[in-house]
Amino acid sequence: MSAQPLVYVVDDDPAILRLLADLVQAIGLNAAAYRSAEEFLEARQPAGPGCLVLDVMVPGMSGLELQKRLAAAGSTLPIIFITGHADVRMAVEAMERGAFGFLEKPFRPPELCEKIAAAVRLDSEAWRRREEQAGAAARLAQLTPAQRKVADRVAAGKTNQMIARELLLSIRTVEVHRARLMHRLGIGSRTELVGLVAAVRGECPAGA
Prior knowledge:
The protein is an alpha/beta fold and 208 residues long. It folds into 2 domains: 6-131, Response regulator (Rossmann fold, 3-Layer(aba) Sandwich), CATH 3.40.50; 142-200, Winged helix-like DNA-binding domain superfamily/Winged helix DNA-binding domain (Arc Repressor Mutant, subunit A). 56% of the residues lie in helices and 12% in strands. The protein has a 5-stranded parallel β-sheet, sandwiched between helices. Helix 5 packs across helix 9 and helix 6 crosses helix 9 (190-200). The longest helix is centred in the middle third of the chain and has 32 residues, at 109-140. It is elongated.
């Protein structure tokens, strides 16, 4: 993974914003600070993993509204809400919409740091899986349609004889397709092929 994790912090209180940025940097992560949800949306260019530490009651677009906006755009960025005006309904709504955490001010710095570190680990793993999926898809896209049909069936554990019967091919033709696709993908075993196909499908290979 090339991009370093980035923690976004959004709060209209300059003192809290500085504190949040300092806490993020204290645990070895990079921080980007914004005074409003609108400023965050305008500046953010997703290029790697991270998380968002967000005040619920920022002026203008509220934290809950920003959460809805990000979800509608397909973002999976973990959100940790902080607020000095919490109520049960607000907390429940945030968590039901997938918030990673909800802390009241004054929050305990160690608790927030633990939440941030956990959120970044979660998002880093999600980015790693997406990158693996994209890489595997690009490799499998090198195959011809006939080779891809054979590859899928080999990965599913079917024998050459079974594949030949399903695709109405000779066993020799299946053997040729199989040898050529393995060469084209630069792999030497069925196990590696299973891993590629599983990565494209977002699955975990058996035994992994």
